[in-house]
Design goal:
Layout lengths: L19 E5 L3 H7 L4 H22 L3 E8 L7 H20 L1 H4 L1 E6 L7 H13 L6 E9 L1 H19 L8 H6 L11 E4 L18 E4 L9 H13 L8
Parallel strand pairs: 1-2, 1-5, 2-4, 3-4, 5-6
The structure holds farnesyl diphosphate.
The site of farnesyl diphosphate (FPP) has 19 residues, from helix 1, helix 2, strand 2 and helix 3.
Length: about 250
């Protein structure tokens, strides 16, 4: 059975699935606390949810999935929690490298990875390099990522380039600026999902979210399952995107 209705004559006007879905994976800590577990158990459950949702995105025909795994502000968390998230990331990258030729998923990172351990940096670089040939499906992992930081870095890169090449800074266009961001050639997200009950952007994809549709739910990230994803996609498809027009 098709996961979503195929375009028939009756459904010809139904919007397609989003090309790019981005998720703020919120609620891991509360999920664990509700179960009298340490917060780190919530992150472990959240990493499992990420695996399932990434798989389901592919099944639904979503080409890009971007997840907020660790923000530039998350360093303020207790050391064991930071270490747990990094260790979950390492497990995922080892697994992705092992299964690369089977899964054909391109892996990409948004964020300043130089703050990570040398081991994690090496794994990240390897995963990116080994998967760069895959074009059907892409996962962007945001680690040590902040939207404002990303914009400042791009502005700095532009200023440096103008200084070096003599190019007129006034020549900058939105398109050229977008290319200087971590997201470079990745299309903007169509749908941003935030589970966990909060309704804020939390420094996530500030530039890229310009015309994204937002979907919020009270479901905590570890409980966010395939049916929840499909619900979010159905809501997205029912929206009328006007991009500032009428
Ligand atoms: C926010 O929930 C979640 C994070 C800051 C970390 C998310 C990281 C993972 C799910 C693991 C990453 C690993 C891979 C492989 C992608 P919170 O802790 O702020 O939840 P709370 O609001 O309930 O406290």
């Amino acid at each position: 059975m098709a996961l979503f209705k195929k375009k028939t004559e009756e459904t010809a006007s139904v919007a397609p699935v989003p090309r790019h879905v981005a998720i703020i994976m919120d609620g891991n800590g509360r999920w664990a606390t509700n179960r009298h577990l340490p917060r780190t158990a919530g992150h472990a459950a959240g990493a499992e949810t990420f695996r399932r949702i990434a798989l389901h995105c592919r099944k639904l025909g979503i080409s890009y999935l971007t997840v907020y795994a660790f923000s530039t502000e998350n360093w303020k968390r207790p050391q064991p929690e930071v270490e747990k998230i990094m260790s979950l990331m390492k497990d995922y990258l080892l697994e992705a490298l092992r299964d690369m030729q089977k899964n054909h998923v391109r892996i990409h990172f948004f964020g300043d990875l130089t703050a990570l351990s040398p081991e994690l940096q090496e794994l990240a670089a390897e995963a990116e390099k080994e998967s760069e040939e895959f074009t059907d499906s892409q996962v962007n992992l945001c680690i040590n990522y902040g939207g404002r930081d990303e914009i400042v870095r791009a502005a700095r890169a532009w200023a440096i380039r103008c200084g070096e090449t003599g190019e007129d800074p006034a020549n900058l266009t939105e398109e050229a600026f977008g290319k200087l961001l971590y997201s470079g050639d990745v299309p903007d997200p169509d749908l941003i999902i935030r589970p966990g009950g909060e309704m804020r952007i939390s420094n996530f994809l500030l530039w890229q979210a310009a015309y994204a549709e937002f979907y919020y739910t009270d479901v905590l990230w570890p409980d966010f399952d395939e049916a929840e994803l499909e619900k979010a996609v159905e809501v997205f498809r029912s929206r009328n995107r006007r991009y500032g027009g009428v």
